[in-house]
């Protein structure tokens, strides 16, 4: 996809910034999608993109997704994302991430970064040396540490809401959950499910993660990667890659609920309608996996575990609200989630028309957007 303003207009982006520093090999793109609700927060991804077009397409798509995720989660944040073009095994250096941090600092808080694919806490720490607009920093610097347990908690709250809707009872006790992927989030989710009395059937393709599950939760049943779609279960929980609900798998599912951590679980939007037609309840992926985002979002106010958990608990009610919109408007759940996000942004955009002057700093390290 070549760059065009028509594309930005149609997707709704406010700003796209290309960063170039040949001294350290930095080639990056920051996309700020929508800052109606607050500064754009979204992780940085490092990937050996085949070309600039591919990188641009990725960052535009991902940044728009962050706007919806923050909006539906009730956060006062906008959507943004960044991609660094390069091979994470070869091209990483302190200089690259510090140079990147200086560019972020120059945006004066319009974009706040964090970890995404192939970016570690150490990389963010280098970035943080040059800018305060970075979260997901080390705990020693007031950061929130590993997001996976918090993401898993949010997915679990979504599951409780799904069970309330389908079975009239939020408890997972005695329910069978088919878990696809027991990596960082999937394993944390398995631990919560096990403590809650659920039966777990799981799969993975990584030997180490399979072994870890067998050691820590021996009562969980292992099946092959391709068999997970066929097992009898109450809930199918995709916690590996996206697009696991597709033409090939959808007819095989024997569950009543799809509820997992993976991003973009529906290969195409129409699969949301198809799940509805098949009587399978789909929990909105970008809401129920927002626990990690909620967790980093409070770093500016001073992170603490119980505050983070209380915030993540709201996923239960919001998920139920989205199910209600889906029922009332007879639209699939994925559309209902978009509707809730868009309504919130539209209504807040309306109240932000008048000039406020400098009303001070709501968060340390973050300048008020209205300050001139
Ligand atoms: P991860 O890489 O730690 O775990 C993914 C696991 O899936 C790995 O164990 C991998 O071996 C397994 N896997 C890959 N392909 C598979 C297949 N075909 N069948 C079975 N298993 C397979 O990643 P993660 O951080 O646990 O994230 C899992 C998903 O949740 C991703 O889609 C991610 O985008 C999403 N997510 C993660 C977070 C977070 O806090 N880490 C937040 C939001 C969303």
Could you please describe the fold and organization of this structure?
The chain has 372 residues and is α/β, with parallel strands linked by helices. The chain has two domains: 125 residues, 3-Layer(aba) Sandwich (Rossmann fold); 197 residues, Rossmann fold (3-Layer(aba) Sandwich). It is 42% helix and 14% strand. Strands 1, 2, 3, 4, 5 and 6 form a six-stranded mixed beta sheet that branches. The chain has a six-stranded parallel beta sheet with strand order 9-8-7-10-11-12, sandwiched between helices. Helix 2 crosses helix 12, helix 5 packs across helix 6 and helix 5 crosses helix 10. The structure holds nicotinamide-adenine-dinucleotide (NAD). The site of nicotinamide-adenine-dinucleotide has 25 residues, from helix 5 and helix 6.
Which CATH architecture of the largest domain? 3-Layer(aba) Sandwich
CATH fold call of the largest domain: Rossmann fold
Q: Give the overall shape.
A: globular
Estimate the helix proportion, in percent. Answer: 40-55%
What's the β-strand tally?
12
Beginning-to-end CA distance, first to last residue? 36 Å
* Ligand kinds: nicotinamide-adenine-dinucleotide
How is this fold's topology laid out?
Elements: H1 5-11, E1 15-21, E2 26-34, E3 40-41, E4 44-47, H2 52-72, E5 78-85, H3 94-106, E6 111-112, H4 121-130, H5 148-167, E7 176-180, H6 184-195, E8 199-203, H7 207-216, E9 221-222, E10 235-238, E11 257-258, H8 270-277, E12 281-282, H9 285-288, H10 291-297, H11 305-328, H12 333-351
Helix pairs in contact: 2-12, 3-4, 5-6, 5-10, 5-11, 11-12
The structure holds nicotinamide-adenine-dinucleotide.
The site of nicotinamide-adenine-dinucleotide has 25 residues, from helix 5 and helix 6.
